[in-house]
Design goal:
The complex is a heterotrimer of chains A (424), B (346) and C (462). Chain A is mostly helical and 424 residues long. Chain A contains 18 helices and three strands. Chain A folds into three domains: 51 residues; 144 residues, no CATH class; 218 residues, MetI-like fold (Orthogonal Bundle). Chain A is 66% helix and 5% strand. Chain A has a three-stranded antiparallel beta sheet. The longest helix of chain A has 50 residues. The model of chain A has no long low-confidence stretch (mean pLDDT 88). Chain B folds into two domains: 156 residues, D-Maltodextrin-Binding Protein, domain 2 (3-Layer(aba) Sandwich); 164 residues, D-Maltodextrin-Binding Protein, domain 2 (3-Layer(aba) Sandwich), CATH 3.40.190.10. Chain C has three domains: 155 residues, no CATH class; 41 residues; 235 residues, MetI-like (MetI-like fold, Orthogonal Bundle). The model of chain C has no long low-confidence stretch (mean pLDDT 85). Classes of the chains: A mainly alpha (424), B alpha/beta (346), C mainly alpha (462).
């Protein structure tokens, strides 16, 4: 009797223990997922928190008196005169006028409020409108990066404010009167790299990325699909095709930086192609994405049920006809999905491009496949390595743009998989 | 199959053609060289690109030595047009240039720079003599009259007035002119101050007095001075060696060590009072002028009053600009483009 | 005509040839009593005609485009007056560059010497002539070959077999390209590696415990001898990878178990894509996160605990790398766990085991080899990862196992050695290739083993 009871007791107790273990195990699982998703969340909040101010620019609106004598300029169409003319003085005068209490003696302090490239903006404006000479125009200019940082991050400990007390008072005053304003940073999307953070933009990097991706796409998609078709449908089962197969699987796992070494040794040193150009970048990324595309295309071909093949063969279609008329159209959505994912990988790749010289300081937006260029992830890398926090802000903003591209590409792939892929 | 043969032939022909691709015409100036001059040169290049109709020059930071090597490889569009240097061209480099057909070179001395030993503002600042610096960083130091591998582990091992922290200094690699100047101006000078150095032969002198220890206390960072700055800001136990301009750009977060009782300031460097000051240069390959468009205009922009004048934009980014008279000389030089000769370098 | 336009035109001609071939096969079939008397369908006759017209034309186009530049250059140089003919290759390249810059307008012709301006004019003329000739030739070849192909269409001709074999060839050459890539990697990397070992002895590279690759650039420079011992690099790589695995394996594995055994459909539908998102984030973003957020956080945290931590601790780079690898581990383990037959699960549950006991005592042991394979793949990914360590790990080659210290990795050194430097004769540059070769071999080995394990395991239950 007592024996039995204790047996039940033991079982009950052990059950308790076992259920507790069960709950604990389950909790571990939830914890693991929480850690992973927490990391994702932290990453995103960190980058958005650091970078959203990168989409804001600070401008100053001034009444500029374009006096001929002050600028030493009579005829804006004369190149020599334009070269020698002084485009800084009108800006300084306009600023002194705008700031109450500022005098000629404050020239230097006043000059440091406006972007060093404002004079270039002014010159271009006069070049475009020669009639402005001798009149007073209301124009808006970028402020100096120090002012930009002060306006956006005053009170933020991470940022150091380089303006002195006097300048801060001026900027506060001008902000009050809406002479200095913040607005959407279109400069960021319309310019190339610059040494001045306020003037730096990602257009050059985006165009570079697009050119590189174009080369990658037109090479890797047709070649990848064709190779997949050959391997799945036509390859005789022998050592050689086995070898190719093992190779492709292994190539997919080769670290990307090795492809950079290959590109450096073969394309640049052996073939004498120029450094830092999208064509070479595209070739290197093609080699890198090919295995991904081949593998996913083969999986897509494999998933077409044999009944379809057999039906087509049954009514006398040749092997090639079976493939081109029946298998390929059915496998196409899967192939496209795989290719989009492969392209997204290539778009985010940085390491191999560092080795083929796509890290130079390039200001001009590239206009061809053989023009020096950089790409979006490399631009992020370059800015992230710069000590100025204003560049870190731009790097975070560039990351947001990059992630937007990547997430939309992946979303497209998922959407396509859901919409187009057939389940058999 | 006949077709196979045709395909193979075409593939071969194609690759041969690719191998012997004709040299491309270049219409963008290509600049290499010192990472110390890089921040100045990029600003000039960017200005030049926005001001003129020429395309913006392409810059790569390769270090003074690496830049010289590339520059002296020959003439032709695949070689750079201009190299920047944070020290003067060496005679060996000049000879390399000559032997590769780069005979006509013009030299421009564009101002001065000091080499600073800096640390994060959170760190303990160093007040050190060059002699102590050599004892901390030299590969061999005298102990009881004998030259042995540097045994000093922490700064206080060198001198008790120095902080009791392990010696960890981050500096540029030998491709860098900053490293060359650091070896010559700081280490060798410190070594010479030691009584034991007097008895060294000339060969021994250069082998001992100009070499940096390699046991991990001196860490060679790449050519990217920005990187050193960033790593210093994060690590209070680390000191870094780089150009004065980087110190100035980050003056809110970095502090400089006092060397031989001198704090590096623009005035002290320009007046040569600070012990580790040197001049900055760039070299132009004359054969490329008139071939690659805009080289002359780039030089003009670099030495213009707008850039290097007393209120020039290069001063804003930390260059210690030459006095007015020297600037006028530079402008004459840009007009005449005289050839550099071996005698000048000796 | 521009080559790109010409390419389009060739394609248009091929389409025309297709139409004509198609029509001719039909008209040949008419008198015989319909297309069923043809050997192949009319489509194939059309396609054959298109290939006949297109392929030779494209070959001519490619050859012409490849060689025209060189030929034009030779003619331009040859046409220069006696005194200006360049002596060396470098001068020739300068001269040609000058001429073509004058021709394109990048250099003002007003400043160029008369012979150069003339040469530029000649260059422009030659270019347009060459383009005209190329267009004429390509079109002629396309039309002529298309016509020949068209003429040879007979009802007995097996057009389908011909077209199909050409296509098959095309497919084959694409597949062979994958081989060429591997061969290319092996050759290029191996060649430079051999050259490296000519300069640095084997034993030093493999067993040396010092890494300091900077060597003298000039004859008169006093610099380090250069030490090429890769042990500190490999231990550094292993340390960071190990930290990454410590983060990624438990988190990845447990989340895979939870998702496959416990979570309901909606949870899985939300969490799985989110986890996969971690794999889609570019490594440069992780590097940015590690260098600017995680590393300072860790060193501050350590400082507040009174421990000294470097600002580029192995821990920061390793932890962030671990986060990156989580989805890799979880999706591989997910596959493996799902591959365990349901019968084993049912059997265990029927005996009264709880879900966690089933998992731990039955499924996990059964899935273990597959999971090991997956982990090996993840390790190979970790040791080849570049951007995170380039941005967040240090450059100092320390031989240490302390995760709070700075270490450097193989990939960091490859990038450091090769950015900016374009020399191919120094041991320093070649060392990067030797490291690359080691990295390639290590990842290859890990992969081959992992794939073998995974495959063997799959066979067990199939």
């Amino acid at each position: 009797m007592t024996d039995q009871r204790s047996q039940a007791e033991i079982v009950r107790q052990s059950l308790k223990r076992r259920y507790r273990k069960e709950r604990r195990f389950r909790a571990y699982g939830i914890l693991a997922i929480a850690i992973a998703l927490g990391a994702l969340l932290t990453l995103f909040t960190d980058i958005i928190g650091k970078g959203y101010t990168g989409f804001v620019k600070t401008t100053i609106t001034l009444e500029v008196n374009l006096d001929r004598e002050m600028m030493y300029l009579d005829d804006p169409t004369d190149e020599r005169q334009m070269k020698m003319a002084d485009f800084v003085e009108p800006l300084i005068q306009a600023l002194i006028q705008e700031i109450p209490g500022a005098t000629e003696e404050d020239r230097d302090g006043v000059r440091d409020l406006i972007n060093p490239y404002a004079s270039v903006t002014l010159r271009d404006a006069i070049k475009a409108n020669p009639g402005w000479l001798g009149t007073t125009q209301t124009m808006s200019f970028l402020t100096h990066t120090d002012v930009d940082v002060y306006v956006k991050h005053a009170g933020d400990e991470a940022y150091s404010i380089k303006l002195d007390e006097q300048q801060r008072a001026w900027v506060d005053e001008l902000l009050e009167r809406d002479v200095i304003e913040t607005s959407f940073n279109d400069v960021f999307f319309s310019g190339g790299d610059s040494r001045d953070p306020s003037k730096a933009g990602i257009l050059g990097a985006i165009v570079g990325s697009l050119l590189t991706m174009f080369v990658t796409l037109i090479l890797s998609f047709p070649i990848g699909v064709a190779a997949a078709i050959y391997l799945e449908e036509f390859a005789p089962q022998n050592r050689f095709t086995d070898f190719i197969e093992v190779n492709i699987n292994n190539l997919a796992a080769v670290p990307s930086i090795i492809f950079g070494l290959l590109g450096l040794a073969v394309f640049i040193n052996l073939f004498g192609m120029p450094r830092s150009v999208p064509t070479v970048g595209g070739l290197v990324l093609t080699l890198m994405t090919l295995p991904t595309i081949i593998i996913s295309s083969r999986a897509a071909i494999k998933s077409v049920p044999p009944s379809i093949r057999e039906a087509a063969e049954g009514i006398g279609a040749s092997r090639m006809q079976v493939v081109l008329h029946h298998v390929l159209p059915l496998a196409m959505p899967g192939m496209l999905t795989g290719s989009i994912i492969g392209m997204a990988q290539a778009l985010g790749e940085t390491a191999p491009l560092l080795l083929i010289g796509m890290v130079a300081f390039i200001v001009d937006v590239p206009d061809g496949f053989f023009d020096s260029a950089t790409v979006l992830p490399v631009q992020v890398f370059l800015w992230a390595g710069s000590p100025e926090l204003a560049f870190i802000e731009r790097a975070s903003a560039a990351i947001m743009v990059l992630l937007t591209f990547l997430i939309s590409m992946n979303a497209l792939a998922i959407w396509m998989r859901k919409r187009l892929e057939r389940r058999w | 199959m006949k077709l196979n043969k045709a395909l193979v032939t075409v593939a071969l022909a194609g690759s041969v053609a690719a191998l012997s691709a004709p040299a491309m015409a270049r219409d963008t100036i290509s600049i290499v060289g010192s990472s110390t001059v890089y921040p100045f040169a990029t600003v000039v290049a960017e200005r030049f690109g926005t001001k003129t109709d020429f395309s913006t020059p392409k810059l790569e930071s390769t270090g003074s030595g690496g830049g010289m090597k590339l520059f002296c490889q020959g003439i032709g569009t695949q070689y750079p047009d201009i190299t920047n240097a944070s020290r003067r061209m060496k005679t060996s480099e000049f000879e390399l240039c000559q032997s590769n057909g780069v005979t006509d070179i013009t030299e421009f001395r564009i101002g001065s720079d000091g080499i600073v030993i800096a640390s994060s503002k959170d760190a303990e600042n160093l007040d050190i003599t060059l002699e102590q610096l050599f004892l901390a960083l030299g590969s061999k130091v005298p102990v009881d009259g004998k030259w042995v591998a540097n045994p000093n582990k922490s700064w206080s091992d060198v001198d008790s007035s120095l902080p009791n922290k392990p010696i960890r200094v981050m500096g540029p690699p030998p491709t860098s002119g900053t490293r060359d100047s650091f070896n010559e101006l700081a280490l060798a000078a410190g070594c010479d101050a030691l009584p034991e150095a007097k008895s060294l032969s000339k060969d021994e002198h250069s082998a001992i007095c100009e070499s940096v220890r390699e046991d991990g206390a001196f860490i060679e960072a790449g050519e990217n001075d920005n990187l050193i700055v960033q790593k210093l800001i994060g690590d209070a136990a680390m000191y870094g060696v780089f150009g004065y301009s980087f110190l100035e750009e980050n003056s809110d977060r970095l502090q400089a060590a006092t060397l031989n009782g001198r704090v590096p300031t623009a005035e002290a460097i320009a007046a040569d009072e600070y012990p580790v000051a040197r001049s900055l240069f760039f070299y132009v390959k004359k054969a490329h002028i008139g071939v690659v468009p805009g080289i002359k205009d780039y030089v003009d922009e670099f030495i213009s009053g707008a850039a290097m004048g007393p209120n020039g934009y290069l001063k804003d980014v930390g260059l210690i600009v030459p006095p007015r008279a020297a600037l006028m000389d530079l402008m004459d030089k840009a007009e005449a483009m005289p050839n550099l000769t071996l005698d000048e370098l000796k | 005509m521009q080559p790109a336009n010409l390419l389009l035109l060739t394609l248009v001609l091929a389409v025309v040839a297709y139409g004509l071939g198609y029509a001719r096969s039909r008209s040949l079939a008419m008198p015989l009593g319909g297309i069923r008397h043809l050997k192949s369908l009319p489509f194939y006759y059309g396609a054959r005609a298109a290939l006949w017209s297109g392929i030779p034309a494209l070959i001519v186009l490619a050859l012409w485009a490849a060689f025209q530049g060189k030929v034009i250059q030779l003619i331009v140089i040859g046409g220069l007056p006696e005194g200006m003919i360049p002596a060396s290759e470098g001068e020739a390249s300068l001269l040609l560059s000058k001429i073509s810059n004058v021709a394109s307008g990048a250099l003002s012709p007003a400043f160029a010497e008369a012979p150069i301006a003339e040469a530029a004019e000649r260059l422009k003329a030659l270019r347009s002539q060459s383009q005209f000739l190329m267009s004429a030739l390509v079109i002629a070849v396309a039309v002529l070959a298309g016509f020949l192909g068209w003429l040879r269409i007979r009802p007995r001709l097996n057009a389908r077999a011909q077209v199909e074999s050409i296509l098959k060839w095309l497919f084959f050459s694409c597949a062979a390209l994958a081989i060429l890539t591997t061969v290319g990697i092996i050759f290029s990397v191996a060649l430079e590696t051999f050259r490296f070992f000519e300069k640095v002895p084997f034993s030093e590279f493999f067993f040396g415990s010092q890494w300091s690759p900077q060597t003298a650039l000039r004859a008169d420079q006093v610099a380090a001898e250069g030490a090429f011992g890769m042990i500190p690099l490999f231990t550094g790589t292993l340390l960071i990878s190990a930290i990454a695995m410590v983060v990624a394996v438990p988190v990845g594995l447990l989340s895979a178990i939870y998702l496959s055994e416990y979570a309901n459909k909606t949870v899985r539908g939300v969490v799985k894509p989110l986890l996969e998102m971690l794999a889609g984030i570019p490594t440069v973003v992780y590097g940015f996160f590690a260098a600017l957020t995680v590393a300072p956080f860790i060193s501050d945290l350590a400082a507040s605990l009174g421990i000294e931590a470097s600002s580029q601790s192995a821990l920061a780079a390793g932890a962030v790398m671990g986060i990156m690898i989580i989805p890799f581990v979880s999706s591989l383990s997910d596959d493996v766990i799902n591959a365990v037959p349901q019968a084993m699960r049912d059997g265990s549950l029927a005996l009264g085991a709880t879900q966690s006991e089933t998992m731990k005592k039955v499924i996990f042991p059964a899935a273990l080899p597959g999971i090991m394979g997956g982990i090996l793949l993840a390790v190979s990914r970790a040791i080849g990862e570049t951007m995170i360590v380039v941005m967040a790990a240090g450059l100092a080659a320390n031989l240490t196992a302390n995760p709070l210290e700075t270490v450097t990795t193989v990939t960091v050194q490859i990038v450091t050695l090769l950015t900016g430097d374009q020399e191919f004769d120094s041991a320093k540059t070649l060392a990067a290739f030797a490291l690359g070769a080691m990295l390639f071999l290590a990842t290859l080995l890990l992969n081959v083993i992992a794939l073998k394990i995974v495959r063997k395991y799959r066979e067990q239950y199939d």
